[in-house]
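Today's session is about reading a structure prediction critically. Students often jump straight to the picture, but the first step is always the sequence itself: look for stretches that repeat, for charged clusters, for runs of hydrophobic residues. Only then move on to the predicted structure, which in these notes is written as discrete structure tokens rather than atom positions. Here is the chain we will use throughout the hour.
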Amino acid sequence: MNRVKLIQVRASVQEPLRIVMDKVRATVSKVCGGIDDMQLLGNKALVIRAEIYPEKLPALYTALTSIGITINKQNLLDQDALKEKLEHPITLQITSFSDETDSRVNIPKVPG
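Below is the predicted structure for this chain, in token form.
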């Protein structure tokens, strides 16, 4: 039995999440073909779960960057590591470091 690799992307934004949430939802939905789940963790983090084909990963990274999301490049999965032409589950966690967010921000641990 082949296991499908889970893709996890961590990102941050300098604006309040309430301002960028609709843009992020539309962007991820457009690139991934829909969103499976979206959770707002207080006013500090937004977690989105979807499915994506490996060849669409660069388009997702570019689209998120174009709307002001800063992607943590240390944790990016190389597209070549996903050789299967299957949809892979992806979890995108965006943390807000806005002035409207508490000055002490603890990044929540997301299962999965």
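Discussion point for the tutorial: The first strand starts at residue 7 and ends at 13.
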